[in-house]
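Cross-check.
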Amino acid sequence: ARQGKKSAIHRDVITERTQRSIRDGTRRVVTPMGSSGSLFCSCALTGCFLYKSINGNSSVLKEALIIWFPMIVCQSVYLVPYGVCIMLGQFLLGAVLFGLSVKNKRESTAISSKQLRKTHEQSIQHLEYLTLYRSSILYLTFVAILQVDFPALFPRRYCKTETQGYGLMDVGAASFCISAGFVRGKRKSSNNKNSLKPFLHTLPLIVIGIVRIVLNQELEYQEHVSEYGVHWNFFFTLGVLTLLPKPKKSLLVPIITMSAYQFALSSLQWQSFIEEAPRTLEELQTESKLLLLEILPMTLANFLVANREGILGCLGYLSLEWTGAWIGQRYLWNTNMNNAKNQRHGLGQLAVVLWMIHLTLVHVMGIPVSRRSTNLAFCTWALAHNVLLLYGLQQIVEMFNGTTSNPSLRIWETANKHGLIMFLIANLLTGLVNLTVPTLEMSAPPALLIMFGYICVVGIAAVLSDMLWNLTAKTRGTATASKKKE
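Predicted model, tokenized:
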């Protein structure tokens, strides 16, 4: 009995320390160095990509050492000086190898317009820079969701903010929605309104979200309600995005949605409701109640009050996905070759416009960035970061098109294909590590080793999932061919 009481007290202490560390991010506006932490990590990944893309056949072990390990270092207290040195070294090595490769392949060949058009259409089918972008976002997220639990290793300025401001981890969930929109820009709109496909895709996400809530409560896993609410998590947000009907790939719909949502946040007191209201309807003062709460039944109103960040935040994440779909259709999947030539730097121009809009919203109109409410300033900040990163990777891949036949690595391809499976595995491993290791009390060196082992397990699991997926597809193909012969 004493041992059980001691364990319960220890868990309460850990939970309080975790929540206190999150509260340290309240109203934190990071410095330019901290706010561009994602760019530092992306630069390191780009250096790894440059080096690896011209360095022969790939292997998981080599890729782990030259990609995963620097990624961990660049999101830790070792960023300066070790991460910076690794990043610069990889850039220099990549530049030298690139120069040598160009020098050895300067024989110019005449290409007919028909061959050029065929090459363009083939590149549209598989955008290597989009694969690199999506997998980079995934691996950076996998590292951050566990590394944040090691205070000695993960700088607090990179953590999620509780009310206003932004840090490295604030861009993670938004990047998921934006990258999903980029891919959806390739798909044609379906006219089948009675299709059960969205529901079938949503059901596993809802089940995973419910299981996560139950496990967190049973295991008393430390979490903070200001992230998504009492009963909400990001799996539910993904489920909402998957279930809701997709509008035509037009920029007008997300602009109207986000503008209306920002008007409600600024003029109808939704922002103060999200940041300051209690978690039950009974505790909410009459003058603080929203009109929306008066319309809803008591049960739904209580659920909204308890999970307002996750539910209302879906409006922002939906706008991000819809905007990403428009960007994907216009700038990524455009099969018109003449138009594509004119839009080669379209992503760069769009990134400049987004940064100007963001700075105007924050410094001229006085709208603070709030990840907690996913307001307009936050959405433009997330879009500007992601579009700028995608543009940089696009230019790098195009630069290397003539020097390497296939710059994509296996770990990038598998992450791009099986992102949801990897995200689920990463979440399970994060919970397992937190339940078996005193993360808050561990020093940086052993935490770094645990992180490296963790990301290797996630990556190897993705490779195994891809092998199983290919084997299953091959078996189905063989069975279908046999039936046709019969």
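The longest strand covers residues 28-29. Residues 444-485 form the longest helix (42 residues). Passed to J.P. for a second look.
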